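Dear U.,

For the methods section draft, I wanted the exact inputs and outputs in one place so we can describe them consistently. I've listed the two proteins in the order they'll appear in the manuscript figures. Please don't edit the token lines directly; just add comments below if something needs changing.

First protein:
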Amino acid sequence: MQHSIAIIGCGNLGLSIANGLIKTPGFDVSSLTLTKRKTESLSPLKKLGVAISSDNLAAAESADIIILAVKPFNLTEVLEEIKPAIGGKKQTIVSVATGVKIQQISGILGDDIPIFRAMPNIAADINESVTCICGINASEATEAAVKEIFNSIGLSITINEDLMEAATVLGACGIAYVLRFMRAMIQGGIQIGFDAKTASDIVNQTVKGAAEMMIQQPIHPEAAIDKVTTPKGCTIVGLNEMEHHGFSAAMVKGVIASFEKITL
């Protein structure tokens, strides 16, 4: 990665992206600048050679690729703040702010600026995020550079902008859905006899194995479930009990409820 990168707004998501980049083999930490109003929490990264600042404009001026990881309601203010730095050397803007369209960003910065929307999740922290990306005004080289960043912290998928809100729900909110499911499994494991750590270890590896199986053997989940459910067995009894209580329906309704909230 030869580009200088500024991550403006290092809250949970911005910091996860930064941590993922730092852990990427061969990544030059000196090419990374992080900003936050109160920089004390970023001091451990400063010791690694990352530039830390509270000056968004200066960070934008020094970067080729600017990742805006601020809250959606702060994005306009930050765009106005960094606008004087944009355009001279055609920096690339990447917004991870939920719900803010590219047109809104270009309306402030200009119609000829390469602008991307990206939606990673907090698994970027361990280089296992999924990131959906869309953009305008970018050359093939610029698009490749942006995808390289997000591929280094997991997997990137290019989509149309009209699917970005759906991508936010499925990929970014979705990690919370999975974690809630895992918490419930751990609670069940404790109830049937395991201590909390052992239950957690079993559930963590089980979920990891299920996901990896779906990645390496691209089959429908039901086809894999069929391998586990034997006639009159304990697995099908458990699955049927969950479905009687609305397991799948609750999951679908939760996804739709999040989507309806984000598209208000």
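Second protein (the one for the lower panel):
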Amino acid sequence: MNLKIKDKLNYFLKNDADYPILAGFSVGFYAMVFYFSNNFDLVNSWEQTLFFLFYYIIVSVGVVFVISKIIEKSKYNSFVSQAIFVSMLLLLPIYLFGISNILDSNKKMGLVLILILSLFIFKIKNYKYCIVLLFLMSVIPVIKLGKIIYLNYTNSTEWKLQPDAILKAEFKKKPNIYYIQPDGYAGEVNLKGNLYRYDNSAFDTFLKEKKFTLYPNYRSNYESTLFSNSSCFFMKHHFSNEFSKFKYARDLIIGENPVLKILKNNNYKTFFITERPYLLMNRPEVFYDYCNFKVGELPYLSDGWSDFREITNTIKTQIINNKDTNNFFFIEKFKPGHIATYKFAGTNKEKERIKYIESIEEANQWLQQIIVFIEAKDPGAMIIIGADHGGFVGFDYALEAQKKVTDSMLIQSIFGAKLAIKWNNVQHSEYDSKLKTPVNLFRTVFSFLSEDKNLLNHLQPDASYNCYDPTDFTKVYKAIDENGSTAKF
């Protein structure tokens, strides 16, 4: 057949044959490339790829094909085309929104029902137009996914290299180290300021009584947990462009990284204890010796936010059961968090501020409890209370910050973060005088433990970077420079 493409398309659309396999494939293919192109950092493992090939492609093809055959062999065989169309209209919103979201939304459920009723009332049966439309709609996510894959192959990994011999650092002191990260805990300057308006002096007094050193001007280098932690654990800047060779922030934080390698070289046993498996969802190769979540237990259709585990008893148990080893604990506490991520009805700055302050108070109670326990069981421990970023109070919702922010207080609200360290050694003041941001946190700690001040010769610039395009996280600007001055446009 030497038909032109247009003639072939017309033939496909107007002939009487049914194509249930192609119909199912079109739905599954669009849903899969749409999901992958928007969540690639969550689903970039081979295990997940195989699962989603089955979930989207095989299931949708199977469902549409079986339904069409059942109708074809029944007394309603004149409605095969409508049955295929209905199957497509049911599967697509289920894939895109999820059954629970559709059932929870009267508007979404009503729209699906109206579309299905319309098929029968107006005897619409040419689902082939829908197949063509879905393949056309797939073009944009396919291009986006292709760009992601291309960048993964071509992005340089040079930023990960250390500028000195810090990987060979030998500790002269080996206390157990507890790096407790209360997500989004704002720094003292922010909490006292006009945006937060909260007196946190009672908790700060508690920390000072426990011999913590406070760093009131500490701030994060990046605005998100993933970017901040990947920079922190590599002790290097990536400028929000860290992904390469299919390694993303979660792989860098939970997998093999310079901080963990240095600790293991000094015979430390490593623990990752978290309330939610947010950092585990793309199935990274876990380099920690212990993790309270097993990768095999994780759901596929989740960002890890809904699976919560109380960690207090787990921390206590691991401390008690590991008294004979040098231990490093990375403890992820998702309080206070930050203001609501997305805009929704009724969202406003003051309501979000109040909820955030309530979360601060809950975080303080928990931190006091765990600090008291650690001191009782491990009095010589080094305890680091270090937040990954600020609380975003002052915005209506957190994603509103993904733009070029000019207000200095709002910029500080994004980055100003809590840091308090119990060094248990007055000599720390010889090492931490320049400690301002997470990218230099562990270099400072390792310099102190190895008693090697030469490691401080390669501190990274204390700049903070913010994304200004929510569709492309590599588009960043220097929101705060090395001297603490905010950006001017």
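Candidate sentences for the figure legend, describing the second protein: The chain has a mean pLDDT of 91. The longest helix spans residues 349-377.

Thanks,
Y.
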